[in-house]
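Q: Predict the bound structure with coenzyme A.
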Amino acid sequence: MKSVDLIGVGMTKFGKHPDETGRDLLVKAMEDAVSHVDKGIDIKKDIKALFVGYFTPELFEHQGHIGTLAAEWLGLSGIPAFRTESACASSSAALATGYWAVASGMYDLVMVSGVEKMTNLDTTGVTDALSIAADNVFELPAGITFPGLFALMAQEYFEKYNGSWEDLQAVTLKNHYNGSLNPKAQFHAEIASIAKKIAVKKGVTFKDDMDFLKSKYNPLVAYPLRLFDCSPISDGASVAFLASSEISNRFTDKPLHVKGVGLGTDTIAVSGRPDLTTSKGTVNAANAAYKMAGVTPDDIDIAEVHDCFTINEVILSEDLGFFERGKGLKGAMEGRTSLSGDKPLNTDGGLKSKGHPVGATGIAMIHEIWLQLRGEAGERQVKGSPKLGLTCNVGGSTASSMVFILERGEK
Ligand code: COA
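A: Predicted complex:
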């Protein structure tokens, strides 16, 4: 196996993009990635293959055959190109495929990407489209939705470990604060400033953040999860270039080395699981990635974890080994996962605040690790020169899990 480096990343702002199609968003993300390759890249000459993560272009844009279409729109027509799909982990599937393509020696440089154009549908339509990532025989006939599935996990977690919805707001507040420092975030605002806006508009007052979060302006979505516990409906795209370490110094003197890759699965229907507060897919993926990288959870300086709903950040922080079982919520409440904590999680605002165009999310996580490890994250840069970063992107009810460990390397 050849050693593989990340030599550039890019993404669009996440949010509503009414005037752009998925293919337009991919072009924008690629232009951004090209501008981040320190020594430049000639896309027509250098890129040998393209992998595009997109969960459901059929339902969101009535469009299939995405890989070939993307190659055409990106000016790469002629090269091998196809789509990867693993629900919300679709672009991590593109990243894994790109990694294997370069590590195998088949190609020396590939482009991996992700995109989702969700806002073409209304909330009911999006909920229905996303639901095909759940089990259509054992779950959907019962009327289950993704907010509903993660609400079940929250209920079980609170019961088992004596937590509460109020405790969970540590995650909401942190991720909105981090998002307020990220210009590419869909919600570029802290809870306090969102509350202030609503207070002025509605002529009401809130004593503090918690008073707002408990108010009718943060309505229940699926008990106990409320609006601000949910990731939003978003459009966006993300891109990364992977190169063999043998040639990466042609493009940058500051690549990130892909040190660990781990993938895993659990049952799609959560009724098949003995415990909803963990996923064996994530545990397996994390163990495989740590083993390959030769590191432990304690060695990881920062991580991006799939907070599609606030409870999932807590569950993943335990499945990844950052906290003991049942201690993740306490860790969040103590500020240990904040920008200045010992285990900063979702420094870009996470899916909660940055947005979650599902097919683009995995590589957008890589984008944040790139900025942080290179010391380029601006106002939200974590202190102490982080060296090792991890991403954990999951599909469906954490039924597929993909973990990557990246290391800062100077050449
Ligand atoms: N967090 C905070 N605010 C949100 C929000 C979220 N997740 N989603 C929407 N809003 C805000 C909007 O900006 C809007 O504010 P405005 O009135 O100031 O413009 C307001 O809430 C209403 O927005 P709307 O789009 O009408 O909300 P909705 O009630 O139709 O949808 C959810 C809210 C939570 C149901 C929807 O975002 C959702 O389904 N999220 C989960 C998506 C998902 O399942 N992803 C896959 C995970 S596995």
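A: The first helix runs from residue 22 to 35.
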